[in-house]
Each structure stands twice: as C-alpha cells, then as structure tokens.
C-alpha cells in the first residue's frame, strides 16, 4: 500500500498502475528528494495533460500544458537491494537528480519534480534510476 502520494494525483494513479502491472507484490515504498532542482513529495490536483511512459523497471508521468511541465514524477522497483537516485534528462543531458534512497529487492522508489518549467518544443524528457534498468522518455 502506498504510504505517500506523489504531487499529481494523476501521476500517482498512472505510476501505481504501471508499477503494479510490471512488478506484482512490491515490498514497500521509499521516497527520494532532490539535490538539483526541486523534486519533492506532496499532493495537489491533476494537470491539464499527462504523458506517461515505462521502460523495464522504471516509469514516468509528466503533467504538462504544451511545452510547460507542471509536474514530473518517476517511479522504479528495485530488482535487488540497491542504493539509487533518480536522474532527469532533457535531450540526453542531465538537468536534475534526486537524493539517494536505498531500496530492498522488490521495493518501490518514487521521486517527483514539481513545476520544472518550460522546455523547447519537441524536447525529449527521460528519467532513469542509477543501478536499475529502464529509461522511459516522452516528447513535449
């Protein structure tokens, strides 16, 4: 059961759906805060549009209006015990990272970056977690 909500309730629903579809029976939930940018955890209303993507053990949900991103959430499920952090990419360049969180095998990690701002048209936004497979991407 989720112990915390990610900022966008829409992002929570999408991430939970993708994570539970990909990995049945997660052991728990661990949250990561940001070291660059402003990734935090809280709850508010959903954004006008939401882009979602999953790749292997990692998913992301991006709330946006055109090229303005109002929330960027990511989640992963650890295949084994690992200390990891989320990395946010714009067109292949790292633009933010979360704090490190240590997960047990099967445990879910979540990070959220509220209000990352405006991006150029057709920017490719991706997330990855160090030491965990998957790098989902969306284009805004």
Quick structural gist:
By secondary structure, this protein is mainly β. Helices cover 10% and strands 49% of the residues. It has one domain (9-139).
What do you see in this structure?
This protein is mostly beta strands. It has one domain. 10% of the residues lie in helices and 49% in strands. It has one helix spanning 9-22; strands spanning 29-31, 34-36, 49-55, 58-65, 68-77, 82-84, 86-90, 93-98, 101-103, 108-118, 124-129, 137-139. The strands form 3 sheets. The protein has a 5-stranded mixed beta sheet with strand order 1-10-5-4-3, with helices on one face. It starts with 8 loop residues before the first helix and ends with a strand.
Question: What are its keywords?
Answer:
140 residues, 1 helix, mainly beta, five-stranded mixed sheet, five-stranded antiparallel sheet, 12 strands
